[in-house]
């Protein structure tokens, strides 16, 4: 299938711009957290290391955008290439997502007091990291979007499905347990 630059370059550019904007907001929130909550446990403050991974992810997405819009300007074949920057981006986004989802699973455990409510998101996060490692490996092997989609397209669906399941589980459990806690608190007051 022939690729249209309006269907490839435009969405990639918009996605990179939006993600860079959100990265900036998240960086400010991380800075404020590190100043305000300096007395949090060390292991919790170490999650700020995730910010370094987010920085690498942002740099790689910007490098990819530069590559397709400046370095390879007019070369429409570049849209079928999967460079190493995309492979590492797959891994980093899945790994960072796993860290965040595991944190929320830990919060569910703290609020609920039941390990079984946190087990599905922890397992989902672990499985997602495994899938994105496979995605990274397959991308480095194929170097071609069309070959990747034909042979390993299922990995994208699986990674997104695991992320959806884990996010939905975390959201539903947190809403339920926070609502239950709030209801108990109102009865006491």
Describe the protein in words.
With about 190 residues, this protein is mainly alpha-helical. Helix content is about 80%, strand content about 0%. Helix 3 packs antiparallel against helix 4, helix 4 packs antiparallel against helix 5 (about 120-140) and helix 4 (about 85-110) runs parallel beside helix 6 (about 145-189). The chain folds into 2 domains: about 1-80; about 80-189, no CATH class. It is globular.
Report low-confidence residues grouped into runs of 5 or more: none
Number of strands: 0
Q: What is the oligomeric state here?
A: single chain
String of helices and strands? HHHHHH
Secondary structure tally, helices: 6
The fraction of residues in strands falls at under 5%
Backbone shape:
globular
**Mean pLDDT level:** 88
Rg of Cα set: 20 Å
Please report the distance between the alpha carbons of the first and last residues: 65 Å
| Largest sheet data | none
Structural class: mainly alpha
In short:
The chain has 189 residues and is mainly α. The chain is 82% helix and 0% strand. The protein has 2 domains: 80 residues; 109 residues, no CATH class.
Labels describing this entry:
189 residues; mainly alpha; 2 domains; globular
